[in-house]
Amino acid sequence: MVGPILQVENLVKRYGDVEALRGVSFTIEEGEVFGLLGPNGAGKTTTVEILEGLRTLDSGRVSVCDLDPQRDPEALKQEIGAALQATSLPDKIRVIEAIRLFASFYKRHRDPIELLKRFGLDEKRNAFYGQLSGGQKQRLALAMALVNNPRVCFLDEPTAGLDPQVRREIYDVIEELRREKKTVLLTTHYIEEAERLCDRVAIVDHGKVIAFGTPRELKAHSGGTTRIEVRLSKPESNGALKTLEGVVDAREVDGAYVLHSQRPPQTIVSLVKHLEAHGNELVSLEIATPSLEDVFIELTGRRLRD
Amino acid sequence: MRNFATLTSMRIRLALRNKMFFFFSIVMPFTFFFLWLGVFAKGSQAACSFYLGSVLAFNVMGSFWGLSATLVMFREQGILRRFHVAPVTAADMLASSVVANFALTIPTVVAELIFARLVFHVSTAGNLPGIFILISIGTISFASLGLVIASVTNTMQETQILNQLLWLPLIFLSGATIPLAYLNPMVQRVGLFLPATYLVNAMQQTIVHSASPASRYVEIISLSCWALITFFLSAQLFRWEPEAKTPRKAKLLVAATAIPFLLLGVWENRTDRILKEAKSAFEVMQGPSRPSAGRMSTQPANSTNPSNKSQN
């Protein structure tokens, strides 16, 4: 029986008085795309950078490809690939030079030209890094993360700051990695990304894993209810909304009311009657199947992108 | 070793594509070269030889400026952290910076030696192996100083301020711009604590008096020790991450880089060897017909300096 390729046990990291990680634990099996989903500042990047050997940990235990990132950083770096956040390359380096340079650092590496073709950068091979668009830079970062054919690939917010069209291009690339059975640890604050790309997700908040499972399992946490989000002309109490027919949960989030209902049609009828009786009016109403965002709201009372 | 070689070649290519490099490493050194040898030397061959030593030393000393700025820019832009997640070590990064800088400095120096011969008819460039050794050790030691500056400063602004604070005394108190023998006696004594003074003096002795590398062992050994200390320290203090700050305790360690020339400065202030040599070279430059303009406060120049193989 082969153990997990990546293990994190009770990971703690402090920056001065701030506790960035407060006992994070999870494991990743070989060949799965694992997502760390959480708002900015939740501790996702710190976790990933400790696993990559870029930061030290205060307590806990981590292992990547059976290596300790603190003790064997050089051996570890041969086994992993990474697309970091807040990183760059010199403006005057050509695309082909950059990928060849990084290929030269590893004992085993892929053909740089084949990688550029795969990431749609073949035509840009002689362009300077500074001339690339945001999407092209990100695709190059992903190509470079794969240059050593890594056993584990870390993608830290790979689509942050990209427009939706480019984001979808990146999703296609990551889905291809998933089909190839690459082990990927992806961090994101986009619900869609986690739901679409990840086999399993850990939801992190304030330096802790607050929920863990496949996207389907996590959503089942919401009890198979339908999400009804309403905006009203006057404030309402959560308590009153909870008494509506079929409603299992009601809470206010950013001035809107999010109701979870087991019988949506009855809930809407009883909501309208309730509002009429109290001289209140419906401003907007949205119905959706629950997403990981609802799981997050249920667990924390906040939206993911607060 | 392989990482070091590929990084060095990348650094050279990037520098050649950089307009700032073109200005600071080609336009500026040649401007100084033609200004000193073409204007200040007033057509005297002896003066051209004398100033050639200053100009070459000046070129070499500039190494620290570009290197510290590039490294800090790489760190601020998150370029270094991309290398950090690959199997690249701090020593790879630093050694490639020093060697790339060396490879980029040599052609300018060679061109200046050729121009000195062809344009200003400097009949002898002195002891060529000696010049090569001094240029090499000078470039490596001042480049290592650049690495230490990059390690102890947190932002580009801080780097530029520190560079300025170091650059001005290095060029004005060492004889690289104004001949040492021409400076106020007190200032000359302060100059003896600067590594640049030893580089300038050794270079002038090597060119003007064809001094052999063996006779310049004090300068060669002291600059080599300094290079080793600064390089070692820069590797200890190296930071990949923009937000990583240097601990104050580590900044104190930087004071260690001043030790070799602090000790040598005390010694040289007692013996006056360098000041005598500087005066002798200055007098040769002025020629026998003109009275000495030097403000030497020490004993009269010893024209048969034992450290010189021959005199021009």
Task: Write a concise keyword list for the protein shown above.
heterodimer, A: 306 residues, alpha/beta, Rossmann fold, Alpha-Beta Plaits, six-stranded mixed beta sheet, 28% strand, elongated, B: 312 residues, mainly alpha, globular, disordered C terminus
Q: Could you characterize the architecture of this molecule?
A:
The complex is a heterodimer of chains A (306) and B (312). Chain A has two domains: 6-219, Rossmann fold; 225-289, THUMP domain-like (Alpha-Beta Plaits, 2-Layer Sandwich). Helices cover 33% and strands 28% of the residues of chain A. Chain A has helices spanning 44-51, 73-79, 95-103, 112-118, 134-145, 164-179, 191-197, 215-220, 238-242, 264-277, 292-300, and strands at residues 6-15, 18-28, 33-37, 59-64, 80-83, 152-156, 183-188, 200-205, 208-213, 226-232, 247-253, 256-261, 282-288. The two termini of chain A are 42 Å apart. In chain A, 42% of the residues are buried. Chain B has one domain (2-286). Chain B has 14 helices and no strands. Chain B has helices at 2-16, 19-40, 45-61, 63-76, 79-84, 90-118, 128-152, 156-172, 185-191, 195-208, 217-237, 248-253, 259-271, 273-286. Mean pLDDT of chain B is 85; it is low at 289-312.
**Name given to the CATH architecture of the largest domain in chain A:** 3-Layer(aba) Sandwich
Give me the secondary-structure category of chain B: mainly alpha
Low-pLDDT runs of 5+ residues of chain A are none
Q: β content of chain B, as a range?
A: under 5%
Radius of gyration of chain A: 22 Å
Helix content of chain A: 25-40%
Main pleated-sheet profile of chain B: none
Q: Terminal Cα separation of chain B, in Å?
A: 44 Å
Name the strands of the widest sheet of chain A in spatial order. 5-6-7-3-8-9
Number of β-strand runs of chain B: 0
